Amino acid sequence: MLRDLFASGFIHNFPLFAIILCLLCAVVSFVLQARGARRITYMLLSACMALNGSVLLHNLITGASFTYSMGHFPAPWGNEIAAGLLEPFFALLFGVVMLCSITAGKNRIATDVRLDKQHFYYILVDLAQVAMFALCYTNDIFTGYVFIEICTLASCGLLMIRDAGKPLVAATRYMIFNLIGSGMFLMGITMLYGVTGHLLFPQLQQAVAASWSSGAYHGVMIVSIGLTVSGLAIKSGLFPFHFWMPDTYGTATPASSGILSGVISKGYIFLLIKIIYRVYGHSVFMETGMQNILFLFGIAGMIVGSISAIRAGTITKMTAFSSAAQIGYIFMGIGMGTKEAMVAVFFHICAHAITKPVLFLSGGALIDASGGGRDFTSLRGAAHRNPAAGLAFLCGSLSMIGFPIFTGFISKLYFALSAFAFPHKSMVVLLTLAVSTILNVIYFMYVSVILYTGRPDPERRIGIGRQKAFFAAVFLLILVNVAIGLHSQPLTFLFESGLQLFLQS
Amino acid sequence: MFTSLTDLWAHMAENYIVVVSIILFGVGFTTLLFSRNLLKKVVGLNIMDTGVYLLLVSMGFIDGRHAPIIADGITDAANYINPIPSGLVLTGIVVSVSVTAIMLSLVVRLYEKYHSLNLDVIYELRNKEDHT
Q: Which of A280, A312, A370, A414 could form a disulfide with A344 if both were Cys (CB 3.0 to 4.6 A apart)?
């Protein structure tokens, strides 16, 4: 039966079903109370995981990608969805992370968001989810822009829904940087459309290659690539545009911080990688020299982000600055540009997506266990008061440091290995990796030691029974983290094959 | 590329819409980035978007042809301009209106909270909140 389903091509509809389902649930949730909207979101995320998982399985078995024409209008007039191996994989990953984030953070959502507004929170999660799916699957650059903006609006809503002064200021700052990025991206794709006359990825790539090889419009093309790449880099928080991160991630409810740092920023990066490979073409991109700029900013981000994390006075700010450093790793890999480096980039996206929500959510639980104090003095001994959150924070920290058995180790290992295939920059990569890892150890281990100092106080201890949902969701993410860390080979195969499909297309 | 300054000026005069679009984009971009007044930032955002839409819609325009709305029963595509950029601009305007609405709602709530539209003042008040 499964074979018949695969052969019939019915699965080609699944990405669109996932997108439509998210929009439908967002509309239905408007008339529901908070609990109903939450349940709808749980069901939606689970259904979308099944749909994306089916697409991934289908493409793994067939070993090929497919293109779905919306409304059956043929290219170049119609809009398209394309799915290889990387698109459904990342859509699935983002769905899992979102589900775990809202499950683990539901108690804090209930306290941070007014009861009459809580259903809006879940609507915004549905909209963020649809934007992520569209960014993963779209084969049309203007659709990409529209969903970038939907994503910006949804994520701003997830921040500002916490009705207090600091989240509002953070949301404003976040919006300003994101709108600058969106404006640059729109200008970049407008210039590209002016030169090529196309919006669909395959036609764009052909036109870009023809124009580049003929020597026509080189200047416009370079400016277009520069604007598009810079726009998405600003939105994902690459150094030196990472200063909105501590305010944003530090003041939002922990579930929002987990979604924004683990999913939303990765969605922009995935779209950027798609555009590099499937719109400009990898060879054209490398000839522009843009990868060197990304490499430099990535390296700088790794160091500056880590130093800022050391200097941060609170656990949330430290975790937020650590995100800036991890984004630096990803852009360093994109800047290296080799196939091996891109596999490391995909691993690091995975590692960061599944680890950062754990850190933010467990950090939030530890803050609650310390009477709301975010500074390190208040957090002293917090792991004794909430052992589950303390253990989760420790596991997340070890993964970010790159401790063996965690996914963070695999990505760092691949970055180091790929550096050897990159003779003129290998020393820079290895040295920066070493320095950044040492800095990671300093701030993550410093906090972990603080969390475990002091004597246990059984009276203030928060047991697992009082936080079952938190425990289940966070430890599911840790389990996935360890599973990938111990058995990375299947994912290596998936990333290599997915990248090959990008190159073939 | 350009043999002389006169050649450059002639080229710019010929493509004056592109020049105006880029100037508008630059004005909007710098206002959004550097202005300390939140309302001016929202205005800058709209100027920036308008610059892009002007550039986009000018790409679809073909001299001597009409708007892509069938009139007098003429269905020959040669009579009309390229409708795709116009469609994109319409979509872009919808996006821009939504973003502006969210930004304005943020500005209103910040003003209610801090009684100022100046970002520096707002940051200062927020930092005072932190210390207290």
A: A414
